[in-house]
Design brief:
Blueprint (H helix, E strand, L loop, with lengths): L22 H23 L1 H8 L1 H22 L14 H15 L9 H17 L11 H10 L1 H17 L5 H18 L22 H4 L3 E4 L1 H7 L13 E5 L5 H15 L5 E6 L11 H13 L3 H15 L3 E5 L12 H4 L1 H8 L3 E5 H8 L11 H5 L7 E6 L12 H8 L10 E6 L6
Parallel strand pairs: 1-7, 2-3, 2-5, 3-4, 5-6
Antiparallel strand pairs: 6-7
The structure holds 6-O-phosphono-beta-D-fructofuranose and magnesium ion.
Length: 446
Amino acid sequence: MMAADQTVHGVPPSLSAKVVGSFAYLTVRDRLPTILTKVIDTIHRNKNKFFEEYGEEGIEAEKQTISLLSKLRNELQTDKPILAVTDGLQDTESWNQYLQRHQRLQGDVSWFKSPWLYVECYMYRRIQEAVWLNPPISDYDVFNEGKTQSFFESQQAVMTLCTYLENVNKSLAELSKNQLLEHFNKLLQVSLWGNKCDLSISAGQDNSQKMSPIDSLNSLQPFILVDDSSMVWTSLQRPGQPGKTTAVRVDVVLDNAGFELVTDLVFADFLVSSGLVHEVHFHGKSFPWFVSDVTAKDFQWTIRQTMAANHKWMSKSGVQWQSYLKEGVWFYHDHPFWTQPHEFCDMAADAPDLYATLQGADLVLFKGDLNYRKLTSDREWDHTVSFGTALRGFGPAPLCSLRTLKANVQVGLQQGHGEKLTSQEPDWMTSGKYAVIQFYSPKSEQ
Ligand code: F6P
Ligand code: MG
């Protein structure tokens, strides 16, 4: 980790709420307290449920959790120092060491003065602490209602997508290489635009997919600012590597539950059924994170719901996904590193086991905006800096970011492109209207 607020060895400062009026500032000032207020409301609304399940103890836990969360909101709104985490969970020490590192570098570490990436992640860790410290509701997912609602509201789009998948899978034997590539690009783009549907950017408001995801692709194409999909495709091709018999493996670092997760599962299904890929490893979060991110429970729930759907191709897809998991074709993992505030260039040092896991992949897909912020260290890069430079040495395997832009960091653009967009649409980096498919291979550096 390096100093956050100055350019050191060509690495620019971190985005921070210190810059009054910036997107980071507005997020910390407005959006985060709104999210906390909704969490408090959700817990309060479920008071009777807690009583039915746990009696008086449930009511007491509800009261105590709300009191911790109100305190947290007050700390945030009055720019209080960031405090140590006290719940003794597996990652507590690592969070507190991270705080100490910032204190050494920066002195005062507080909500509006420290890197935005750090304080935003920290808020979700403190929500986890507030719930965890209050058994019997310690396992309660305060974001569950929004995630399940977003899944149900996207049903029509999910059915369309599963029907499309069925048609592709049925015709696989007759497809030419070019036709296969066409389907690959479509499903990659569906997974990309699935990232529009997160609930954190809208502070929990409905953001589900209502249009047909396949029909929308043409009209969305002009909004893809960087399209490295041909390199993604090439990274999965094995001919020309005589003697290479090992299975092709793709890792997907998941982002949001709801429609986005379905688009990721559909893409992974296509990769396996087409024979392009033999193993898919999904990486989710180990506790509720950034409102809509996928946890193990969300992952299993989504597959069960898909299986149980009253739609032939949807339920067939769900059954297929379940058997991929049972047969060891698909794997689900979580690792505490994904719910920490670290920039990914710290992964090799701070989570060497996870780094080694990712090294086993032929391609790692990073879904979503927060992963992009962590890939690029959430810094004020010039837009023309290359993606490889912004990764600052992170490159366990060839990797690709599939991200709709919701935070003001964007690298790898042509000279003048960023400036042109800024003059036409000042909020182009935060509106979720634009996207990138951005690829990097450590092999190209050798
Ligand atoms: O500011 C918007 C925001 O909350 C960012 O902090 C975060 O990067 C993003 O939304 C979450 O988006 P995604 O789900 O795509 O990671
Ligand atoms: Mg998310």
